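Encode chain A's predicted structure.
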Amino acid sequence: MSWTAGFPDGVQVAVTFPLFGEFVTRMDAGPERGPSATLTHNVWLPEDPQFEANASVNFPAFTDGVRAVKDGEVTRLGATAITAHYTPGHTPGATTWTWQSCEGARCLNMVYVDSLTAVANDTFRYTGGTSQPSIVENFRASVRKVAALPCDVVISTHPSASGMDDKVARRTKGGLAPGATGDPFVDAGACKALAEASTKGLDARVAAESKR
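Encoded structure for chain A:
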């Protein structure tokens, strides 16, 4: 086992985390407009900030073995317990996942943070409009939730969001083993830093929407 993820040797994860975050769970939708509608019927929801951008994207409908994961629910993969945290914003169903990776008596808190980037098509308004309410406060609540998580190693949807490429380069240059003293990936302030950057991006989006 290595510090890169913390899953047991020989265990294969068949579901990508972005898929879970963006399409499988929703905070406020009933089953007819939540994961069942999206995954089993290939339906895109107009209240999704990514709706127009992904309108031409098609993926196979799932009919078996699909269910919504509840906020705070713990899913077990072997001996690893993975907790779901709803963090809607970039998409209505964005979900952050946490687990512990242990070697010997030492455990690190791993956090996969779903996208907290306030990016959408030009017609969508996070601040709301005639047909959609504002989701800014829900987005800010998601950012605060991520900032408050126990966090030793952060994994982001896009490497640039958490400086992953730079961390890899620094670890390689220093000849450091994963999890060793000085490993740049081990940073108790990483989730807070990502949250601060997300807040700045959301503030900029809200300011831009106020001008149009």
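Residues 70-209 form a domain with the Metallo-beta-lactamase; Chain A fold (CATH 3.60.15.10).
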